[in-house]
Amino acid sequence: MNDTITVIAVLVILAGLVLAVLYIGKRLNRYKAIWKALDGWGIPKSVSMFKYNFITPKGVRVISTVTVPDTALNDIDAGIESQIIRHNAAFPHWNNFKKHTDYQVLFVDQMDEHPTHGTPEVRIQGIQSAGTCIGVNPMGNNVEPMIVLPHQQKQEWKFRDYLMRSAWNESEHCREFVNSLEIFLKYAVANDVHPHVPGEEQMRGLVATEQPKFTCGLVIDKSEVNL
Question: Nearest to residue 83, comparing CAs of 165, 192, 187, 179?
């Protein structure tokens, strides 16, 4: 009887170890694809050593190199919500990326800092930017669309409006890419002034439309893309 229990216990432990190895392997393979996509925009693996996974209250998946406070998770939700509301109104026929659960955010280590405001930035192909996104290359992608932002651990996550608008602005590129390549390309290179779909307050001039500099990292020849 004791031998049988011992054998069963050993089998359970071995099964658990196999499942753990499979899970870790699957997770590493996913990270490899993300690292490859980030490297294509000039964001090295050294600033994207992911350790933590979070889900915001509304279901946005977050992968980060550092721990992320609840306030930041709420700010991500608020920013993406602003985009969803405006795009739903402007393009009611768009069926993709209509829910928070469709979105993913990657927090990487900052690569630069704004000299005046002290806000964190990344470098996209050598250009300083408040954020970017991967998985939005019309020539092909090895990952789904994801928002990429520098975390604010050094700044103690105090730039909350900055984070909210970062999530909002980059989610516009993701939403446009999966629904209309034509509209995505319109804003991906030359006309990338956020928000792409301004609310009534911006249209009436009550809120400045000037935003921190963002880029989706896309540098292509539009003539090569079959619309």
Answer: 165
Pick from 98, 54, 51, 50: nearest CA to 73: 54
Q: Cβ distance 185 to 138 under 8 Å? A: yes
Tell which residue, 216, 205, 134, has the closest CA to residue 169: 216
Does the predicted model carry a pTM greater than 0.90? no
| Angle at CA of residue 67, ends 63 and 71, nearest 5° | 95
Residue that is written with structure tokens 């105090």 in the block? 158
CA dihedral angle for residue 170, residue 173, residue 178, residue 179, rounded to 10 degrees = 130
Q: What is the pLDDT along the chain (227 residues), one digit of tens a residue?
A: 555 666 565 555 654 544 444 444 445 567 999 999 999 999 999 999 999 999 999 999 999 999 999 999 999 999 999 999 999 999 999 999 999 999 999 999 999 999 998 999 999 988 899 999 999 998 888 899 999 999 999 999 999 999 999 999 999 999 999 999 999 999 987 678 889 998 655 544 434 333 444 444 443 333 333 22
Domains of the chain, residue spans: 2-224
Chain centroid, CA 37 distance in Å: 12
